[in-house]
Design goal:
The chain is mainly alpha-helical. Helix content is 84%, strand content 0%. The protein binds heme C.
Length: 134
């Protein structure tokens, strides 16, 4: 029994060390760190929109400000990211944000809900295309 345990450890520890090293390498990639930071901001803005859309009194000025911040983030990502394959998805996201910004002027809660759902589809599509390791 002990023999198997030793054998098991001998086989698995180099594998674990290898994957830990690989993980560290991924985390040190400055471009990925930057993308993740920009995405964290995108995420908090996105959830801000969700909360605003579910409030009793809709604050369309705040919705507009949040959309502007997201638009700005998408623009910065397009300008700075070394991953040019993200460009088209970022363009799509910017277009959706721009469309919603126009619609928000009518202050219609149904349009707002629909627009937020469409934005989320863009987030989801890009993640399924470009997540780590793909
Ligand atoms: C242009 C493609 C693209 C779009 C559009 C996009 N993302 Fe991302 N997102 C990424 C990439 C690439 C990563 C980094 C994935 C990785 O770690 O490998 C990421 C990571 C994230 C993360 C993890 C951040 C972290 O701290 O690790 C969150 C949260 C996130 N995105 C939220 C969003 C939200 C919300 C939206 C929509 C408003 C969105 N993303 C739209 C490409 C995109």
């Amino acid at each position: 029994m002990k023999k198997y345990l030793v054998l098991f450890l001998l086989v698995t520890s180099p594998l674990m060390a290898y994957s830990a090293k690989k993980e560290m390498k991924i985390n040190r990639d400055p471009n990925l760190i930057k993308i993740r930071q920009q995405m964290s901001r995108m995420e908090s803005n996105y959830f801000n929109l969700e909360i605003l859309a579910n409030s009793k009194v809709l604050n369309f000025d705040e919705v507009n400000r949040t959309l502007e911040d997201m638009e700005d983030m998408a623009r910065k990502m397009r300008a700075s990211s070394a991953r040019k394959e993200l460009d088209q998805s970022l363009k799509d996201l910017s277009k959706q944000i721009g469309d919603l910004k126009k619609e928000v002027k009518q202050e219609d809660p149904i349009h707002l809900r629909k627009g937020i759902d469409e934005i989320y589809q863009s987030c989801f599509r890009c993640h399924s295309l470009h997540a780590s390791g793909k």
